[in-house]
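REVIEWER CHECKLIST
Item 1: Sequence provided? yes
Item 2: Single chain? yes
Item 3: Sequence as submitted:
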Amino acid sequence: MPTIEGTLSATGLRFAIVASRFNGLIVEPLIAGAMDAIVRSGGDAANVTLVRCPGAWELPQVARKVVDRGGIDALIVLGAVIRGATPHFDYVAGEAAKGIAQVAMSTDVSVSFGVLTTDTIEQALERAGTKAGNKGFDAALAAIELATLTRALAGGPAPSASSAKKPRSK
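Item 4: Structure as written out by the authors:
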């Protein structure tokens, strides 16, 4: 049975990372993790544009503008929404996820969701590079695989599987 799949080779791919400034203590390690995954996968840091926005609520609209600018193969969206004592979390997390999904469904650019939604700051820190790995690293790997899969489905050149060893997470 024929199989079409992406690889984990970022060679030649162009990326944008849209990252929220709010909860910077969490988001900065996610950005570092995403960059680490891209470079470990053969990508060039010079082919990555970092776009910052105020918070998770603004991520979808900025992601849309970045996609509309063109010039990228994959978009990695990073942020952190931490539950508080009010329903604010539900509105921000839900609308950020829905908006980013709408961007993903309306473009040929590969979009990866790396927005943490946690109950506590401790859980967020764990997912930003301590106990639970780095979800920015994971989001970048998903973007790389999706971008190469998109190329393969379009019949375009995809990096060879032999050059795409799985990078190790930090």
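Item 5: Key structural point noted by reviewer: The two ends are 35 Å apart (CA to CA).
Item 6: Recommendation: ____
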